[in-house]
Amino acid sequence: MIAARKRAGLPDWMVIARRELLERLRTPWFIIVTLLGPVMMIALVVVPVVLGRVGDQTARIQIVDRSGRLGEPLRVALVAERWRAELVAPDTDEQLLLGRIRDDRIDGFLIIPAAAPTAGTFVYKGDNGSAEPIMRSLNRVIYGVVLAARGDALALPADKVAALLAPVDITTRHTTGDDQGSSGLAAFLVGYVVMFVLYLSIVLYAANVLRSVVQEKTNRVVEIMVAAAKPRALMLGKILGVGSVGLIQVTVWAVMGVVTINQRGALLGAFGVDAGGWSVPPMDAVDVGVILTYFLLGYFFYAAIFAAIGAMVSSEQEAQQAQTPVMMILIIPMLCVQLVANDPRGAVAEVLTQVPFSSAILMPMRWSLGGASTVSLVVSMLILAGSTFLVARLAARIYRVGILMYGKRPSLRELVRWLRY
User: Parallel, antiparallel, or unpaired for β 84-88 and 123-126?
Assistant: First the structure.
């Protein structure tokens, strides 16, 4: 095939890239995974909101009032919050209540201390203790009832107690100087999703290069291919072919992500759900371009490393061991996500988004949070592009020698000799 394409005037690396691309595009799994991306994006927007509206947010709770004062007001307040609350005897044994939780007769129980409302600790135990929205609702109700009781104890007028208990509306907006701003949580989630998609895509497709090289080397197919094309052309074509598949998928996902984010209100409206004030940071063509650019640079950077690893080993087992250090380096940006999200303009975020091992994953997130200037973005791209070129040159030297080497893995001294060869 390579010889036929060469007669047609195509360079070796383009023939290999075309073969790798078509080989993967024709598989049904490519279509399935590509379509699942947009479906998952829509599901991430719609499903939590819909379930939050139609799901049963009530809890079955029993109240042990040892103060003799707060039990009934607390029960009434919880019922107003759609809880199913009932009072039980103050001397009810705790083991009996725990047994009711085990038997799924109640979700939990609340013990009001005898010194309440002036002192003591409220204790709640239940199978929903890890449900953050439910616990937040319980804390809010308890706080309101206790404040009302303390106001009565101080003989405060009812209107003053009501003013004291009036809720305070707090809205947080993420902004780097623009007027509109966006929801802080929404900005973080968008940035996190961008980071995670890039991490997953780079890892999957770069690792595909490793597996493809090892498979061809194990089956001795590479010996036939080397007879028709130079090793450097084989490596470049393989990286380009696999990367083209990844670029197609990431482009589809990025465009669908922009549409999903920008049309969130209409999308939720189709399911009868109000999007509310959960505003998201806008995404445009520049943002998509940044995401795709860093995917390509990050992919080439790590794919070259994985191609060199594939040429060094002779089996899948050796490949798994040899790629472990690289995978550990890839995990570091995942562990540093919160550092960038907490202070996208800080020095730590600046360093992490300039280092080539982590910039491909963290810079798009920092850019989406508005923490990176245009100069910082361009410098990061140039550093990553230069590092990718250098790594690719070194990997090509290892690849051209190691692709036909079998047996044990080369030592560090042998690798240095390959690089100088």
Answer: unpaired
